[in-house]
Amino acid sequence: MNTTSEHSQTTDLPVSDCWALLRSVPVGRLAVSVDGRPDVFPVNHLVDHGTIVLRTGAGTKLAAADRHPVAFEVDGYDADSAQAWSVVVKGTARSVERLHEVLDALQLPVFPWQDGPKPTVLRIEPDSITGRRIQVSGGYTATPTHNA
Amino acid sequence: MNTTSEHSQTTDLPVSDCWALLRSVPVGRLAVSVDGRPDVFPVNHLVDHGTIVLRTGAGTKLAAADRHPVAFEVDGYDADSAQAWSVVVKGTARSVERLHEVLDALQLPVFPWQDGPKPTVLRIEPDSITGRRIQVSGGYTATPTHNA
Fold first, then answer.
1. Which of A76, A85, A98, B104 is most buried, judging by how many CB atoms fall within 10 Å of its CB?
2. Cβ contact (<8 Å) for A71 and B39?
3. ipTM value for the complex
4. A86 and B42: CB-CB below 8 Å?
5. Could you tell me which Gene3D superfamilies the record lists for this protein (chains A, B) (predicted)?
6. What contacts A111, CB < 8 A, 6 or more positions away?
7. pLDDT digit string, tens, across residues A51-90
């Protein structure tokens, strides 16, 4: 479905699609509040039984996330359909100690966006999951369009 | 430069590199605090005279950003070198009314990640800019490595 309108078309995604998209990419961005000021940084993630598991380097940012509300975002662009998409998970992050060895055993992310000698594992229990797909105005498509 | 070590190698980037990377991608993620809870969403951006200009749909998230501290993040992955990178700008966002028409005239982002009939333009005046480049353990490279 292509659009020639001036404004792009937005579609809210069902939760099942959100989970599929969350599984489709290895890296997302974790937003936290540190002393009331927002911060955001890329992290590796996995979907695990209805939760988001993050593995990052230890640090003040992670301390800010542990047991606090967080927002986690993934996005992408499908060139075949000229559709951008994004999914945002909001919930509370909690550090997980025992899971660490399990994740190591699984050789979880081999894409350590966050570096550090003592990786920390956080699990986000979602309060809400929202996703949207946006038909991009002027975006290129794999099929011919009638755009000028 | 490839690495075979267990941990990835992180390099802090000079500010000039951060600006170049900010210019290199059309979409970043804006993190805000709404009633003390973090939120994050993808937005189009431009670099303009040492500031970040965002164009998004109007909404509560934008209202939360206007005249408040925000964090803005871009990231990417260079397959040639197996290096991931990210840049985070922190500062205060302010809505810009008169710039709107200028941006429209420039046909600014043709990639409206955020949709809406009344696009809002925000300008982030940076307080800090930080960037890192990370040699990814196990990342694929365009040149042969000695990894097993």
1. A85
2. yes
3. 0.78
4. yes
5. Electron Transport, Fmn-binding Protein, Chain A (2.30.110.10)
6. A26, A27, A44, B84, B136, B138, B139
7. 998 876 666 567 778 889 999 999 998 888 888 999 999 9
Chain centroid offset of residue A82 CA: 20
Interface of A with B (CB under 8 A): 7-10, 27, 29, 31-33, 36-42, 69-73, 75, 84, 86, 88, 90, 110-113, 115-117, 134, 136-139
AA letter at A66: D
**Closest among B7, B3, B18 to B76, alpha carbons compared:** B18
DSSP-assigned letters across all residues of B72-126: EEEEEEETTTTEEEEEEEEEEEEE-STHHHHHHHTT--S--SS--SSEEEEEEEE
Other Cβ atoms less than 10 A from the Cβ of B148: the count is: 4
Is residue B8 pLDDT above 70, yes or no? no
Chain B: residue whose CA lies nearest to A37 = B69
User: Do B77 and B142 meet the contact criterion of CB atoms below 8 Å apart?
Assistant: no
pLDDT single digits (tens) B31-62:
999 888 999 989 888 898 899 988 766 665 67
How many Å apart are CA B44 and CA B60, to the nearest integer? Answer: 17
Amino acid in the structure at residue B91: G
Residues B127 and B90: beta-carbon distance below 8 Å: yes
Contact B71 A10 (CB under 8 A): no
Q: What fold, for A9-135?
A: Pnp Oxidase; Chain A (2.30.110)
Closest by CA position to A73, among listed B26, B73, B10: B73
Query: Do residues A24 and A75 make contact, with C-beta atoms less than 8 angstroms apart?
Result: no
Domain extents in chain B: 9-135
| pLDDT tens string A87-142 | 999 999 988 776 555 565 455 553 444 555 556 778 899 999 999 998 876 555 44
**B75 with A27: Cβ contact below 8 A:** yes
Are residues B38 and B97 in contact, defined by beta-carbon separation less than 8 angstroms?
no
